[in-house]
Amino acid sequence: MAREYTTIVLHIAAERAADFEALFERDELKRWEDYTARGRFTEACLIRCRYSALQSGGIQDYVLHVVTADEHAHHEHDEDAGFAEYNKQADTFQPEEPTVTFGDLVFERKSTGN
Length: 114
Fold this sequence. Notes:
Elements lengths: L3 E10 L3 H21 L3 E8 L10 E10 L2 H8 L2 H11 L7 E5 L11
Antiparallel strand pairs: 1-3, 1-4, 2-3
Helix pairs in contact: 1-3
C-alpha cells in the first residue's frame, strides 16, 4: 500500500502559541518518536509559519506535515487513546477549525546533498 501524505494547518490563538508548543512537545512528540521508530511515520514535522495566507488576526498558523507508511498508519495514530486525549487539549488552543488535506504523491524531488 502506498504512503499517505497529510498536511494540516493548525490555527492557534497567537497568545497561546508558546503553551501549544509546550503541550505538543510534552504529549505528541513522544508519540511521533514511537511511530517513526516503528516505521509507521516516515516523516513528521511541525512548522511555525512566518507567513500564511490562511492566517487571520490574532492567530499563529502551524503546518503539521506527516508522511505515513500507509493509510492504516494514519488511522492507527488517530485512534490512539493517547492522541485522543492530547487532541482534546490541543483543540482548546484553536479558535478556528484546522485546514486538513491528505492524499497521494504525484511528483517528488529530493536533494542528493551535493
